[in-house]
Design goal:
The protein is α/β, with parallel strands linked by helices. Helix content is about 40%, strand content about 20%. It folds into three domains: about 90 residues, Rossmann fold; about 160 residues, Mur-like, catalytic domain (UDP-N-acetylmuramoyl-L-alanine:D-glutamate ligase, 3-Layer(aba) Sandwich); about 140 residues, Protein-Tyrosine Phosphatase, Chain A (Alpha-Beta Complex). The longest helix is centred in the middle third of the chain and has 17 residues.
Length: about 400
């Protein structure tokens, strides 16, 4: 790879940025573009990767060996179109990551929820056992300050997403499945389709670790809250024991007990102006929302739990509408922002106002907010008896960060 020059369209994506760091660590000349600056692009710049904000045909180096694009980038993107004009081969993120994994002992972590935390936990456990893995995680791991960790062994721990069946790009030595639920409704049309995709992934793996294999695994007390994180820890420990059965349980438990979490997973941001505590969480599926609320109630008994929820995708909001309403109703208050369209066109039939009304119908307390400025203003007003969460897969965390200033 050392003589390669790779250009990445959408380099600020959480997976794309990790792949960029993987290539850079191998001596590849990596550059790329994204729509805006973010904590992830800042990590890349710190590591010497050139990032352009804004996407234009002129950004693509004429001598690039390969152009890699994220799922959020359509075929008619000007940089992709320019690559085709220049005759530069293209690969999707997961195609490229699958190629990179072929020469490694790959441990792929999949599941509707929990795969980021489980990947981070497993990577850390293998590091603490001196097995020196390379790790690709779907979030910034607190102690690494990055979503990528370069190792010297042939172990490769990677978060594997089921969207568009991308995890089929891997033929792992070990596949970890945290859970399987209906999601990515813009691609999968039913739970049966999701289950079928996971079935194909199982068939491609040499060994599989899933709930029946780890439900009875014992784990220590964790710094990260919630029963769901105990399940993530059980899955990670079961996989670690399978990969390195010679390592003593105490090594795994010491590692788990000191795991401090990742960016946007029940992440404490600080006290708000009038005393409320602010957390940020990536939850964007009804189950994840409900589990986060439950964990918050366990951690903060007697406090009001207030959500600032940013729905992600019109298709997911529409297809899981009733489930979202029920999950949001479990909070003391829910403020709902306009739907983050991401890769989808605007759908006027799906609105945050309708979701707020549905939450009220289920006995909850909800209000639709017009924009991030309104969310920031409300966050600044919350009193000391409150724990607030900015929540969703979009960039709602920015409203919380503004409220802290």
């Amino acid at each position: 790879m050392k003589n390669k020059k790779i250009y990445m369209v959408g380099i600020g994506g959480i997976g794309m940025s990790a792949l960029a760091q993987l290539f850079a660590a191998q001596g590849v000349a990596v550059s790329g573009s994204d729509r805006e600056e973010s904590p992830v692009t800042r990590v890349l710049v710190q590591k010497g990767v050139s990032v352009v904000v804004g996407q234009a045909a002129a950004n693509v180096p004429k001598d690039a060996s390969l152009v890699i694009y994220s799922d959020a980038v359509p075929q008619d993107n000007p940089e992709r179109a320019r690559a085709r004009e220049l005759g530069i081969p293209e690969q999707s993120y997961f195609q490229a990551l699958g190629e990179a994994a072929k020469t490694k002992r790959t441990i792929a972590v999949a599941g509707t929820h929990g795969k980021t935390t489980t990947t981070a936990m497993l990577g850390r456990m293998l590091i603490d056992a001196r097995l020196d893995p390379t790790v690709v995680v779907g979030s910034i791991v607190t102690e690494w300050g990055s979503n990528f960790r370069q190792g010297k062994s042939d172990l490769f721990v990677v978060e594997a997403c089921e969207y568009r069946s991308h995890f089929l790009a891997f033929k792992p030595e070990v596949l970890v499945i945290t859970n399987v639920e209906f999601d990515h409704t813009d691609f999968f049309k039913s739970l049966a389709e999701v289950q079928a995709a996971f079935g194909e992934a199982r068939a491609q793996a040499k060994q599989v670790v899933e709930q029946k294999d780890y439900s009875a695994v014992t784990v220590p007390e964790l710094l990260v809250p919630g029963e769901f994180n105990k399940d993530n820890a059980r899955a990670a420990k079961a996989a670690a024991k399978l990969i390195a059965p010679e390592v003593a349980d105490q090594v795994w438990d010491n590692s788990l007990a000191s795991y401090r979490g990742t960016w946007r997973r029940f992440e404490y941001k600080g006290p708000l102006p009038k005393g409320a505590l602010l957390y940020d969480d990536y939850a964007h599926h009804p189950t994840a929302v409900a589990l986060t609320v439950a964990a918050a109630r366990e951690k903060f008994p007697g406090k009001k739990i207030v959500l600032f929820f940013h729905p992600h995708l019109y298709s997911r909001t529409r297809d899981l509408f009733n489930e979202f309403a029920a999950a949001l109703a479990a909070a003391d208050e829910a403020y709902i922002l306009p739907v983050y369209a991401a890769r989808e066109p605007h759908d006027p039939a799906v609105s945050h106002e309708a979701l707020a009304a549905a939450v009220m119908q289920k006995g909850g307390h909800a209000k639709a907010l017009p924009d991030f400025a309104a969310a920031t203003a409300r966050l600044r007003e919350l009193p000391g008896d409150t724990v607030a969460f900015t929540m969703g897969a979009g960039d709602i965390y920015k409203a919380g960060e503004q409220a802290l200033i």
